[in-house]
Amino acid sequence: MQSHRLSAGVFSLPAGWIGNSARKEDDSLAISKAKKQELVAQYRDWIERSQALVVTTYIGLSVPELETLRREVRSAGGEFHVLKNTLARRAFRDAGLEIETEHFLGDTAVAFAFEDAPGVAKAVVDFAKEAEAVRVKAGYLDKRLVSADEIEALAKVPPLPVVRGQLLGVIMAPASKLVRTLAEPGRQIAAVLDAYAKKDAAPEAA
């Protein structure tokens, strides 16, 4: 039987789909302690380089669908990887992130947003709306655990580079930085509100 290696931490599965059999085949393949350490280090590197993470579950996702999702995430400056739960939990803890065990049960894949957190969130959320095989379980923004609803809200940030940067900066800012931001001349906040107003008015004008 032909098999494909999907990503670091995923081993050998039947061509054409991934799901329970992928997980079983993965779990049945013993890996050395050194390999486990290598995977944990790789996961932690992805985590620490990310602005945001989107934790998902997948059941019965086909390989073509997986590759489509990966392309969408990659186009937003991120990567989408299937992870081994035990090693993922260790890597997340090592990186200082709070975890909920239920987020790392079953078939788990994570989108890592290296450059554009809203763009990666939108890629995953939009794909999940069309493919029932994928569901957002939770996420992380600036290393903080957030809910699936918050990831969906992040995905709705307008795809305007300046507006996105301003909003994400406010969302991710520590309290001291937020105070300084709000104390600056109001033109930046006004620009954000103006962009929202124009965006909301566009459908009516059409």
What is the CATH domain class of the largest domain? Alpha Beta
Low-pLDDT stretches are 1-18, 20-29
Radius of gyration: 19 Å
- The amount of beta strand, in percent, is 15-25%
Q: What is the number of beta strands?
A: 5
Distance between the termini: 54 Å
Number of helices: 9
Do you know the CATH architecture of the largest domain? 2-Layer Sandwich
Q: What structural class results from the helix and strand content?
A: alpha+beta
Question: Helix share of residues?
Answer: 40-55%
Order of helices and strands: HHEHEHEHEEHHHH
* 3D shape: globular
What's the name of the CATH homologous superfamily of the largest domain?
Ribosomal protein L10, N-terminal RNA-binding domain
Main sheet specs: 5 strands, antiparallel
Key descriptive features of the protein:
Alpha-Beta Plaits, disordered N terminus, 9 helices, alpha+beta
Task: Kindly summarize this structure in a few lines.
The protein has helices at 20-28, 33-48, 63-75, 85-94, 117-130, 148-155, 161-172, 175-183, 187-205, and strands at residues 52-58, 78-83, 108-113, 134-141, 144-147. With 206 residues, it is α+β, with helices and mostly antiparallel strands.
